[in-house]
Amino acid sequence: MPDIDPTDHEIAELGPKIKDVDDADELRAMLALEEDGEDRVPVKTLIEDRIEKVESEDDGEIDPETVDLSELTVADVANMVREVDDADVLRDLLEREKAGEDRKTAKSQIESRIESVEGTEEAEGEESEAVEYVPPEEKYPDLDHPTNDKQWVEGTVGAEYRDMWVYCETQAGELVDVSKEMLGKARTLMDTYNEEYDESERVVAVLIGADAGDHVEDVIAYGADLVVYHEDPRLERFRHQPYTEIFCDMARAGGELAAEGREDIDWKEYHEPRYTVFPATNNGRDLSALVQGELDSGLASDCSGLYIENAMISNPAKVGTAGDKKEFERVLHMKRPDFSGFEYSTILCIDKPHRDFHPQGASVIPGSFEMPDPDYERDGEVVDYEMALDDDWFKVEVEEYDRLSGGVDLTGHDVIVAVGRGIGDDPTRGIEQALDLVDAFEDADLGLSRGVITSSYSFDGHVEQYVTEERQIGESGQEVEPDVYIAAGISGAIQHKVGCDESDTIIAVNTDPDADIRDFSDYLIEGDLFEVLPQLTEAVEAGELGAMMEASDD
């Protein structure tokens, strides 16, 4: 007989009690009591979810030699093989995948890991063949080569690169949250990097603006070792050319390869940053592309994950010899969603024998990383960067503009209720019902899919204020990870998946049982959102859905 008899309790009381039960057999006994007694579906779901969680915790790490690959997603396979260093085990995994699910992307992940572990073997009896290098301007004489005109491009090979630079964006006099998130992630990455490679490289925060100096203390508290800032009243609003020129000038300041006549700077004795990270906001996307392009390096845009690892590469264009392999050290692996489907691609920026590609750059989707706790006791170096700004960069003067007050930050809420094109039959009523559900929770807010933002729906004035781009969730909007994410009338495109995939529990409401969102939802309610949302609101107000939420909270 279990200690808790579910039939003696209301559903609202069971959530907190069940969370403390860690014995799967006891939970099964509770489930049997409920089935023989009240037989309430929400209670059974509550107990079954807890059983699944307890058993998954008992299973521990996945054993690649015995795991059933059919039970793993492609993402699970990718994460598992990253930890496998035995080529024979990997080949066995590959054969089992071919004989079972035979998923193209899963096989590619395993094959890539095999190559990383042992490289591509040369054909027996063949000698390595060097790849002839021909400069681009000679190889393609009929094409223009604008790279040659970029003032910051020096075509370096074997130069010294250090540190991770983080562009910290401010808006309306405030440091935006994604800047803090990136600093926390950079701090973690560089701490691990320094330990693994026995280095002492830094997190460098870059601040540009009319009030840049006001944020120095904050960026140090969130993880920066060094702050380089430039402050000028003309930089109150983001401007493409001056912001790009300032960042690039900072990046190339000092070092052996500084521009002729420029004195070395004591805070930087290397050529360029090793890594650069920007926010994937409207301004951050512009600046990241401009800076990386001006420095003639690569950019992985809209990333949701970063890690630093060595990479075994056999591409002749990168290695310089056909059939050979080379291990590149300290490579920033930049994880971003794949537009072709519900998978992720990892982007690498690898040098060539005659060409260095630095800094390795990424822009990061807001909400991708946890918000760190600030430590205002941290010490950091501060550089007030001096630079003359060309008056020609400010030929256009903005005399008047409107600034939205407040803004909407969807991160940090317990619940997000998001609606999509399913509201099309009656857009105003769809928003009203979603807001009713939001109000039923203690800590919730409204999110929108891109389809609603870009639609030509007509909304009545009392709800029109809620249909704004800043409520958009997804790759080009905010990324959230609430305890519960309710997606009503959203098909589940990959761009939207990126914005909500880390939620603890995803509940989808859709008339199409085969909608893409089914693939990454915990629950799918097949039905019209105009009928389902009011029922969910009633369930929350009655305390029924709240109990399910607590059981699903990891």
Automatic annotation (TrEMBL):
Residues 118-130 have a biased composition (Acidic residues). Residues 98-116, 136-150 have a biased composition (Basic and acidic residues). Residues 164-396 form the Electron transfer flavoprotein alpha/beta-subunit N-terminal domain. GO terms for molecular function: electron transfer activity; flavin adenine dinucleotide binding. It comes from the Archaea. InterPro entries: DHS-like_NAD/FAD-binding_dom (IPR029035), ETF_a/b_N (IPR014730), ETF_a/FixB (IPR001308), ETF_asu_C (IPR014731), Rossmann-like_a/b/a_fold (IPR014729). One of its GO terms (biological process) is fatty acid beta-oxidation using acyl-CoA dehydrogenase. Residues 98-150 are annotated as: Disordered. Belongs to the ETF alpha-subunit/FixB family. This is Electron transfer flavoprotein subunit alpha.
